[in-house]
């Protein structure tokens, strides 16, 4: 056992030295590829942290390293998380295109590799991941300003924006992945100017008879919260009410005037990317935490995706039904934090927050216990 572990550890060490031949030789002699150091790194994770180790990463993947191996702790995430964190575009493409890495896995901070690349400002990595997972991408025109002026000077009240529709990461892997509409001012931007959750938005279908047809998308995700906040304000705050009650709206047209083909493509996204239609083949012998187990389940199971936008008649159910979890915004709020008493999220999210001692998502009070609620 000790001799086998020393071989595995030696292979890990050869990664740092960029010694591809030694890695191949050790693996041929029986050395494993999933040895984990004290910092929670596998050989592949280590190879995905430096640009000069690209050939090592490629070799490890060809030898059978687990491309979706998840590790918690200070180096939480999959190899794709680590490559995205450091802006390694070529490594990211290697993981995605050649070895089917799952880009929708969440790390310990509930971030996908795309979230990390956006936060770090790596626009090249953002484009690489979005190109792999998007259901729509392209230049469009965004209208802004008073709507009555669009009749007289539409060219002065519109601007070119880069628009993508991508699936989001989710902790509830029994439900379809949800879609986000993401708007960038330019292709050089890593951070979006707007992100709109399409599962909470209404879509007004474009009118094909118009010379410059457009589509209006209304984000309803904040309307309920804003209306509740409005009821708590004083009657003298009339102007503030008008601002609070205003919904986020986005009016888009095709990049070229009259291009109904692009506009229809935007309104009816194409079939999901292949990685959303097939199960991910991954195994690991390392014990998994509850968070790891959820991600592992996601990588083993076929991933359903809901690709339809909400219709203009879609009913906002936030008032009538149960509220969404404040953490994953996916499952319903089904558990209460003790002792503060806030019904703040789903049982899995609140248990994980309790384990990390992060406090209640609403009031930040310490959580002594999480109790699941049952509605009759």
Please, what is the oligomeric state?
single chain
Number of strands: 10
- Biggest pleated-sheet summary: 7 strands, antiparallel
Low-confidence stretches: 223-246, 278-321
Radius of gyration: 24 Å
Structure description:
This protein has 376 residues and is of the alpha+beta class. It has three domains: 1-130, Ankyrin repeat-containing domain (Serine Threonine Protein Phosphatase 5, Tetratricopeptide repeat); 134-316, Pleckstrin-homology domain (PH domain)/Phosphotyrosine-binding domain (PTB) (PH-domain like, Roll), CATH 2.30.29.30; 322-376, Herpes Virus-1, CATH 3.30.40. The chain is built from 14 helices and ten strands. It has helices spanning 2-16, 20-28, 43-47, 54-63, 79-85, 89-98, 113-120, 123-133, 223-231, 238-244, 260-267, 274-277, 290-300, 347-356, and strands at residues 136-143, 158-167, 179-184, 194-197, 201-204, 214-219, 248-254, 335-338, 343-345, 369-372. It has a seven-stranded antiparallel beta sheet with strand order 4-3-2-1-7-6-5, sandwiched between helices. A three-stranded antiparallel beta sheet has the order 9-8-10, with helices on one face. β8 (335-338) and β9 (343-345) form a beta hairpin. The radius of gyration is 24 Å and the shape is flat. The relative contact order is 0.09.
Short description, anyone?
This protein folds into three domains: 1-130, Ankyrin repeat-containing domain (Serine Threonine Protein Phosphatase 5, Tetratricopeptide repeat); 134-316, PH-domain like, CATH 2.30.29; 322-376, Zinc/RING finger domain, C3HC4 (zinc finger) (Herpes Virus-1, 2-Layer Sandwich). It has 14 helices and ten strands. It has helices at residues 2-16, 20-28, 43-47, 54-63, 79-85, 89-98, 113-120, 123-133, 223-231, 238-244, 260-267, 274-277, 290-300, 347-356; strands at 136-143, 158-167, 179-184, 194-197, 201-204, 214-219, 248-254, 335-338, 343-345, 369-372.
